What does this fold into?
Amino acid sequence: MAKQKQSSACFLNSAILLFTIFCASSVSVSVSARVHPILQSFHQKPIFRSNFHSIYDTSNYGTFQLSNGLAKTPQMGWNSWNFFACNINETVIKETADALISTGLADLGYVYVNIDDCWSSVTRNLKAQLVPDEKTFPSGIKAVADYVHAKGLKLGIYSDAGAFTCQVRPGSIFLEKEDAALFASWGIDYLKYDNCYNLGIPAKKRYPPMRDALNATGRTIFYSICEWGEDDPALWAGAVGNSWRTTEDINDTWASMTNIADLNDKWATYAGPGGWNDPDMLEVGNGGMTYQEYRAHFSIWALMKAPLLIGCDVRNMTAETIEILTNKEVIDINQDPLGVQGRKVNASGPDGCNQVWAGPLSGGRLAVVLWNRCSSATTITASWDTIGLQSGIRVSVRDLWQHQELTSDAVSSFSAKVDAHDCRFYLFTPYPDHSVE
Ligand SMILES: *[C@@H]1O[C@H](CO)[C@@H](O)[C@H](O)[C@H]1NC(C)=O
Ligand SMILES: *[C@@H]1O[C@H](CO)[C@@H](O)[C@H](O)[C@H]1NC(C)=O
Ligand SMILES: *[C@@H]1O[C@H](CO)[C@@H](O)[C@H](O)[C@H]1NC(C)=O
Ligand SMILES: *[C@@H]1O[C@H](CO)[C@@H](O)[C@H](O)[C@H]1NC(C)=O
Ligand SMILES: *[C@@H]1O[C@H](CO)[C@@H](O)[C@H](O)[C@H]1NC(C)=O
It folds into this structure.
């Protein structure tokens, strides 16, 4: 959602009046601490260097989680905003659901069909309920949910933890219970909850009431917090939502995508099953970046355990867009059950643009991306020191874009030539029993 300057002064009076009610209604839902057993055994294997823990610091992994049973792996699906913005209607949502099925994207895990801003009428009805826009959603949201569910998909909707949404539709603040109940009655499966017109009330106070309201409906609803990373949500949102935006909105440019990747990287230690850092939806297929740049965008989002929410028109994708979005080997990295966010482990060369990003996977494997952010081709090296392996360990290397095994006995480092703004994505499988002395 585009941020808009807020006119908080207009709402100050009502904010003060309602503040007491707000605080009183903010009942906390219990969250449980847990450490993934798989992580423990992983760290004890002799193939990893003693610095493994500091390279892939997981000290905050799974500390607090919303226990609604969702987001065991990052959410996958589609969202209307990046391509359609406000130009949505029930036809385009249904056709998108059809296309997710016909392209095979749904079978790969892209199951959430998420309607962003602009679905609702600009005013509530006489019962103070949200109403779907009667021109663009004449059949209502429930009919769209029924359509989507009949295809085995899930429907997401959008509201705002403020007086209005960014496109000035009614927001849900102070009416969380009513709106959550309405969403549940429609069969909604996912809520993206935005941050416009927030009355200057801290996010930590505005986001928990909707968590509790969603929980109180008894319907399991994915809760996607979108406060643009303003109050460092990684530090608190794990107990509130299933994912939290760490940055401002992405746009369809190389500058935006790389900037957001770096900002999201900062919070890697906080991600884990149940709650994910969200660097915003994918721009793959929207035309503002090259094939190589989109491939890097998709690879890094997958490695960072970001939500994979397609942001293009899936009814009309080029062969290249389809190739990127349907790369099952890359999706498998994103959906790996270990759920540790990969991160930037080395940046060398001019402006640090020769980058190595890596992360642990289940089964003692590693995902490794060599990312060339320079403007000419270069050779990038991942040394075993950098990625946390003992130098004598033999590794089999699989290229996840070429879909082939490159070698079964890489030792001490692995290098490849990478084109400008492109990346290489590898699955490293170390062999503990075959190390070179
Ligand atoms: C629905 O939205 C799509 C995408 O913006 C547009 O092409 C189409 O004309 C709209 N259909 C109707 C009936 O408004
Ligand atoms: C509500 O919260 C409780 C406690 O965290 C959890 O066990 C339950 O599954 C939640 N229910 C829903 C519908 O999200
Ligand atoms: C896109 O994002 C970049 C980097 O954050 C920013 O400099 C630029 O102004 C944005 N462009 C648009 C059109 O919003
Ligand atoms: C399909 O996408 C192409 C760009 O890739 C565009 O030129 C064309 O207008 C689109 N067609 C429809 C029907 O939207
Ligand atoms: C980062 O990579 C460069 C180039 O391969 C290497 O010289 C340097 O030692 C690496 N730094 C770390 C901390 O691994």
Summary: The chain has a mean pLDDT of 90.
